[in-house]
Amino acid sequence: MSEAIDTAELGEKIVNVLKSIYDPEIPVDIYELGLIYDVFVNEDNDVKILMTLTTPNCPVAETLPLEVEEKVKSLDEVKGAEVEITFDPPWTQDLMSEEAKLELGML
């Protein structure tokens, strides 16, 4: 039972790290922006993050996934981190949180 709690706690820490990473063109973090599709943590505390970019031609397509990987790896509990980029489904503004929409004056 404590294993599930540890995974949940680690998941929360990972989300907090993701909320500290911002898209350089939009003043909203990548989590609230809806760029993170899923976070998987296995029993060895290896993390896999499925994410997208606002467009396939995104200027940070090379650097943003690396930044996500490095920051998640910096958590003591994480043994390894891998980021997979997908464009299926493509990102739309509908994926943004209410907080992000408010921040950008869309509400």
Please report the number of helical segments. 3
In terms of quaternary structure, what is this? single chain
Shape by Cα distribution: globular
**Helicity range of the residues?**
25-40%
What is the tally of beta strands? Answer: 3
Content-based structural category: alpha+beta
| Sheet with most strands: strand arrangement | 1-2-3
Q: Let me know the largest β-sheet.
A: 3 strands, mixed
Q: How many angstroms separate the termini? A: 41 Å
**Order of H and E elements:** HEEHEH
* Unreliable stretches: none
Q: Mind telling me the C-alpha Rg?
A: 14 Å
- How confident overall, as mean pLDDT? 91
Residues in β-strands, percent: 15-25%
Compile the SSE list and pairings:
Blueprint: H1 2-18, E1 36-41, E2 46-51, H2 63-73, E3 80-85, H3 98-103
Parallel strand pairs: 2-3
Antiparallel strand pairs: 1-2
Task: Give a brief outline of the structure.
With 107 residues, this protein is an alpha+beta fold.
Describe this structure in words.
The protein has 107 residues and is α+β, with helices and mostly antiparallel strands. It is built from three helices and three strands. The protein has helices at residues 2-18, 63-73, 98-103; strands at 36-41, 46-51, 80-85. A three-stranded mixed β-sheet has the order 1-2-3, with helices on one face. Helix 2 (63-73) links the parallel strand 2 (46-51) and strand 3. The relative contact order is 0.20. The model has no long low-confidence stretch (mean pLDDT 91).
